[in-house]
Amino acid sequence: MLKLFRVSMALSRKAGLWVGLILMWLGVNLAPAWAASPGDGAVLFETYCAGCHPKGGNIIRRRKTLKLKSLQRDGYDTLAPVINLITQGQNNMPGFADQLNDTQIETVAQFVLEQASNNWK
User: Fold this and answer.
1) Which of 2, 4, 56, 96 could cysteine-pair with 120, CB 3.0–4.6 Å?
2) Cα distance between residue 42 and residue 58, in whole Å
3) Where does the protein end up (predicted)?
4) 45-77: per-residue pLDDT in tens?
């Protein structure tokens, strides 16, 4: 009986170790963007926006970039309209209200405006 108990404990430790390693791997490699802190505008932008807007550009509509001159021309050079655009989308750009919460949307909007002010450097 004691031998069976020891074998059982050894298997439990190994199983616990594997479960822990798997959970750690998932946490590192599959960390969802919603887990990003409010200061992680760059992470959120990279996850949700950079596919179409690399370095503030626009691969779909070249004239609709995230560069300061373009944002000013189109009336997106303040926080409120950028938040609205990210939330609801417009034309070819989808809205992200289903994927991002209000804080994350505001964080991305602030990041975009900051980067535009710094010429996306």
Assistant:
1) 56
2) 17
3) Cellular thylakoid lumen
4) 999 999 999 999 999 999 999 999 999 999 999
